[in-house]
Amino acid sequence: MFAYFLNKVYFCFADGLAAFRTFLKTEFSDENIEFWLACEDYKKIKSPAKLVSKANKIYNEFIDVKAPREVNIDFRTRQDTKQKLLEPISSSLNEIQAKVYSLMEKDSYPRFLRSKCYQDLLNRTQMYCQRKSV
């Protein structure tokens, strides 16, 4: 269900992504969705030089133990990712991205479904659908 939500939110509904981001900010864990989105952008890069630059930016912002928006990952994953980013390719962040995704799926998303942010999103969506059907 989370995969469906996140894919639909990311690709179709800016309001849904905004609601999820707002919710994560209230929980002080918005670095997770920001990291996930940065990884999605990273995978689209074709230029090797830009890939290196983006890899360094993501590492410094989210992965390094001194990162200002450090994601909550285990030591082993952090070290493996650091090694992979020495010679980055488009799939270098797949493992760590999957772990952060899993964390959001199991932890943040169920709480989001019970949140005011989600209820507000549902109400806006229902009102929009009702106006469209008239």
TrEMBL record:
The Gene Ontology biological process annotation of the record reads: negative regulation of signal transduction
Main localization of the protein? membrane
Query: Which Gene Ontology cellular component terms are annotated?
Result: dendrite; nucleus; perikaryon; plasma membrane
UniProt feature coiled coil, ranges = none
The protein's UniProt keywords, in alphabetical order, are: Cell membrane, Cell projection, Membrane, Nucleus, Signal transduction inhibitor
Q: Which InterPro entries match?
A: RGS (IPR016137), RGS_sf (IPR036305), RGS_subdom1/3 (IPR024066), RGS_subdomain_2 (IPR044926)
Mind telling me which residue stretches traverse the membrane in this protein?
none
Where in the cell? Cell membrane; Cell projection, Dendrite; Nucleus; Perikaryon
Pfam families registered for this protein in UniProt: RGS
Give start and end of each RGS domain: 16-122
For membrane topology, the record states: Peripheral membrane protein
Family matches, as PANTHER family: REGULATOR OF G PROTEIN SIGNALING, REGULATOR OF G-PROTEIN SIGNALING 8
Protein name from the UniProt record = Regulator of G-protein signaling 8
